[in-house]
Amino acid sequence: MPPRPKAFSRLVTELARLPGIGPKTANRLAFHLLSGPRNRSQALSDALRDSLENVKTCVVCHALSEGTECSICADADRERGLICVVEDAGDLYVIEDSGAYRGLYHVLGGAVSTVEGKGPDDLKIQELIRRVERENPVEVILALSHDAEGEVTTTCLVRALAPTGVTLRRLASGLAYGSRLEFADSVTLSRAMEGRREI
Amino acid sequence: MPPRPKAFSRLVTELARLPGIGPKTANRLAFHLLSGPRNRSQALSDALRDSLENVKTCVVCHALSEGTECSICADADRERGLICVVEDAGDLYVIEDSGAYRGLYHVLGGAVSTVEGKGPDDLKIQELIRRVERENPVEVILALSHDAEGEVTTTCLVRALAPTGVTLRRLASGLAYGSRLEFADSVTLSRAMEGRREI
After folding, report:
1. pLDDT score of A112
2. B179 in any annotated domain
3. Range of the domain at B116
4. Spatial contact of A99 and A190, defined as CB atoms under 8 Å apart
5. Any chain A CB within 8 A of the CB of B2?
6. CB of A186 within 8 Å of any CB in chain B?
7. Is the pTM of this model over 0.90?
């Protein structure tokens, strides 16, 4: 066994658990963190610790939040009759960055996925139903990925929300089939938002 | 401005400073760290903090080390007459993993690079000269990259070490194991031809 310091090996192991980071990249990153300027690595370490201590999940929409309620849910200027359902908080920021939407959000926490072993019960669908019953919004917009997993999740949501009688819309074409929301550009997203259609 | 929690934005900024990690990937990683299971993210945070506290640089060879001297330098069973010069600690582990070498190492801390603005004075060359004078090894092996930067660095080292009179060798140039002749570039082929050996 090569005499790598134990703490270094543990760092490589933990880095390699990140999505899209293989063992070789994890190794390279760990070397960079420990061989490069230590103040930069310390800044990352501090940022990570600070985030884990201070970034929570909004009790209403389940987005990332600094308090119990996120700044969007707490913002009185948002259109409170609109709830946009997204897979994760990352998708929420993509939509926010496009500037095409001024309503509220609901973060599902993923999509139904046989690959990841995620079923409807692993998503915040019951929370969404209760929220729709409580808040009685004008419209719920499904802004899910336009791929197989997004379609299955859409079907689940349509069934689950049918009893509430709420108007359901989805993002319009403009997103190519098979593309994922997180890689969409703002123009495409704006057009998809404008052309949202009833399901 | 999208209402991202401040600690989250700081985490994205710090992640994006890592080599090969762009802003989109940094964003995705930060979401994963804060939206996924917190105990995994906490484990990474702990591993990083622990590494920064406990992984040092060996005073002799400049490899990563748990103490002032690394486990290779402290190992009495290594061949102490051989010093293998590598660009970084990552290259050291590649050689260790191959099991092909049982001598000591010297980590330069990179290669001479106009792109990265790294000159000979940014590398541990003076430390190597002093070490060769002090330890008087049988042989110094240059295990640098076989590319333009590695060649320039090799030239610098050959000049710098000439006054010590130590025997300098470099890794053989040639065809990689498993490579096919038809895909070999002409420089590699020329070198393999020059360095041909009796069977």
Report:
1. 93
2. no
3. 78-172
4. yes
5. yes
6. no
7. no
- The answer to whether the CB atoms of B7 and A89 lie below 8 A apart is no
Q: How far is A161 from chain B (nearest CA, A)?
A: 25
Which phi and psi angles does A12 have, rounded to 5°?
Answer: -60, -45
Same domain, A114 and A176: yes
- Inspect the interface and report whether the beta carbons of A11 and B48 lie closer than 8 Å: yes
Provide the percentage of residues in chain A whose pLDDT is more than 90: 60
Cβ–Cβ under 8 Å, residues B105 and B127: no
3-state class (DSSP) for residue A86: strand
Indicate whether B15 belongs to any domain.
no
A12 and A103 housed in the same domain = no
CB-closest option in A41, A96, A97 to B52: A41
Closest among B130, B39, B123, B14 to B83, alpha carbons compared: B130
The span from the CA of A84 to the CA of A98, in Å, is 14
B188 or B152, greater pLDDT: B152
A110 pLDDT exceeds 80?
yes
Asked if the C-beta of B70 comes within 8 angstroms of chain A's C-beta atoms, the answer is yes
Which CATH number belongs to the domain containing residue B156 in this structure? 3.40.1360.10
Please judge whether B33 and A13 are an interchain contact, meaning their C-beta atoms are less than 8 angstroms apart: no
Instruction: Choose from B48, B50, B77, B104 for mutation: most chain A CBs within 10 A.
Output: B48
- The answer on pLDDT for B3 being more than 80 is no
Look at residue B141 and tell me if it is in a domain: yes
The structural domain count of chain A equals 2
Measure in Å the smallest separation between the Cα of A49 and chain B Cα atoms. 6
Is pLDDT at A55 greater than 80 in this prediction?
yes
The pLDDT value given to residue A87: 93
